[in-house]
């Protein structure tokens, strides 16, 4: 599986792809949380559940059903009041995309245990045909040589595309900016006999 850091940055990229509006910090924090939450199933091993069961890793909490329920609860509980520029359905869709992105990325790893997208209705596990991402060590093992190798792999396949999306509005405005020229604003010409012109 990709690390929690990569899941979080992918969620931020999805949110930025959805809107360039200024949204409250809790939107970004909860988007990242929705993307990380499915990995709560790693705790199942501590309670004696085998990782291949429905409750095990990449099981129920990685399903589309869980993503829908999680996104609905986050939207209802954290956004009871309207948010300027984002309705509840839009917020729900963003959180859902963030949660589902976790399972999609997990289905792109080189591991041996697929993702139970259809749980709890089916225990079938799935991988995507293209799997370039290296499985990340779990827990403190991430902060090791193996973790460093994993992060470099994730940087190429997750961070670079995500950062392009996140920084795209800034890059676009940087290249389109022209000195002394304001797009969409009226430029006043003070020369005698001339009328103001719109840029």
Strand order of the largest sheet: 1-2
Overall tally of structural domains: 1
**Secondary structure tally, helices:** 5
Q: Any idea what the radius of gyration is? A: 22 Å
SSE class:
mainly alpha
Strand/helix succession: HHHHHEE
Structural overview:
The protein is an all-alpha fold and 199 residues long. It has one domain (4-198). The protein contains 5 helices and 2 strands. Helix 1 crosses helix 2, helix 1 (4-18) packs antiparallel against helix 4 (88-106) and helix 3 (64-78) packs antiparallel against helix 4 (88-106). The radius of gyration is 22 Å and the shape is globular. Residues 184-190 have low confidence and may be disordered.
Short description:
Helices cover 47% and strands 2% of the residues. The protein is built from five helices and two strands; from the N terminus they run H-H-H-H-H-E-E.
Summarize the helices and strands and which ones pair or pack:
Elements: H1 4-18, H2 25-36, H3 64-78, H4 88-106, H5 145-176, E1 186-187, E2 197-198
Antiparallel strand pairs: 1-2
Which keywords apply here?
2 strands; 199 residues; mainly alpha
């Amino acid at each position: 599986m990709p690390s929690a850091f990569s899941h979080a940055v992918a969620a931020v990229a999805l949110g930025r792809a959805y809107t360039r509006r200024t949204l409250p910090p809790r939107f970004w924090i909860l988007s990242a949380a929705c993307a990380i939450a499915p990995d709560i199933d790693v705790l199942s091993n501590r309670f004696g559940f085998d990782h291949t069961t429905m409750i095990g890793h990449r099981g129920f909490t990685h399903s589309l059903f869980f993503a829908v329920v999680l996104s609905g609860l986050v939207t209802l509980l954290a956004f009871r009041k309207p948010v300027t520029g984002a309705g509840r359905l839009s917020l729900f869709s963003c959180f859902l995309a963030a949660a589902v992105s976790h399972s999609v990325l997990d289905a792109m790893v080189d591991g041996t245990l697929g993702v139970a997208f259809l749980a709890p209705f089916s225990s079938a596990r799935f991988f995507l045909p293209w799997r370039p991402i290296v499985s990340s060590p779990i827990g403190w093992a991430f902060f090791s040589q193996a973790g460093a190798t994993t992060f470099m792999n994730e940087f190429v396949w997750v961070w670079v595309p995500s950062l392009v999306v996140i920084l795209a509005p800034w890059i676009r405005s940087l290249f389109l900016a022209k000195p002394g020229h304001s797009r969409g604003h009226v430029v006043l010409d003070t020369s005698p006999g001339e009328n103001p012109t719109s840029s």
